[in-house]
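Running co-folding for glutamic acid.
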Amino acid sequence: MTGKTPKHEALVTFLTTDYAGITRGRSIAAAAYKPNQKKSLGWVPANMSLTPFDLIADPNPWGSAGDLRLLPDDKARFRFAIDGSPSAMDVVMSDIVELDGAPWICCPRSFLKQALGDLEREAGVSLISAFEHEFQILDAGWPAAPAFSLQALRRADPFGPALMAALRAAGVEPQVFIAEYGKDQFEITMAPCDALAAADRAVLLRETVRELSRNRGWHSSFAPKTAVDGVGNGVHVHFSFNDAKGKPVTYDASKPGGVSQLAGSFVAGILRHLPALVAFTAPSPISYLRLQPHHWSSSYTWFGDQDRESSLRICPVNRIGKSDPAKAFNIEYRPADATACPHLALAVVVRAGLEGIRQKLAAPPLFSGDPTSLVDAERQALGLHRLPQSLSQALDTLLADKTVCDWFAPRALETYVGMKRMELKLAGEALDDAQCRRYAEIY
Ligand code: GLU
Ligand code: MG
């Protein structure tokens, strides 16, 4: 052999984001990864029963037996530099499959693909989506700065420019970097794209923010609350529909709020099942510190026009210099946070929406006001039902919703609920600052 031994060998990591919302994977030499060769790596069924605290739920349906494969999606490889990282980020989103290549019943990414496929087949539309994330940088030692201020942005410099550059290089189409309302809180939005890619991008965004922060000796957190009295970190999932020809079909000027019949049925399906869905989209004990009235997060089954307290919000359309509102028109799902797996969260939203389309449900009435100022009977009449107020309540509500349970293979549901119950046991009852900090370390 001649020449110098390189210091680093380029690696590519096959990734999956699991029921705990944690992105895990295995690496091989990048030179050994050849697209279209269906190269896969081993994976273990009981991994899906891992709680965020790194203990496997006991009992779980899998035990020590069985083997699976991580099968990369060649179209979902992302290679890009992150400021301060010694090697490039090189990852490929993968599906968890059986040894014969069939999707594994618990694979969240396959579950999302199946839901999107059913939506396309049955309703003739594809889903366009974008995930909007809030997070906090916890220990940068910055002086205080006002919310939304230039100071708050510049204090973090060049975090914002470096984040935008990394995401741009990854092909993730970052849009707006914001110093948010909460203490040391930021937000980043990405352009809408096809729904599977949007969930993949959510994973990349979280990991890029984390790595960029680590490289600066900071800790960033997407936990739904990092302090009981603090502002929540939300994940808002925007969605709209295109027909088979790529024409946007979410908007109809003649309907209340401009919501087309199809989109109205989809929204109605989501609202009907929302109390069960939050077990997947707001899936940690501290998620319920965020899902409270007056948190701009959502706490009732509520369809709202440009109201940030609603659970499904019609987003404003900017008409300055633009002629066709149909293109930008979208609705956002607000009761989600980053303790959820983006693929699983989006999949249950799609499944619920599809139920609404199948049953041709009418669009729910739009509500504006403060549900807490109404009495129970008034709220009921308006269809405003309080969302579960704890994770254990959410899990019970999920198990009582047979329609939602039936979307899952029985062992997949058992895996999810078993893992969450174990998480509750490990986390304990306290919903205090110490618990928030505990979650902030993980998420
Ligand atoms: N921080 C709020 C949440 O927890 C969202 C605020 C906003 O509308 O941007 O969802
Ligand atoms: Mg925000």
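Result summary
The chain has a mean pLDDT of 96.
Residues 195-215 form the longest helix (21 residues).
Job closed.
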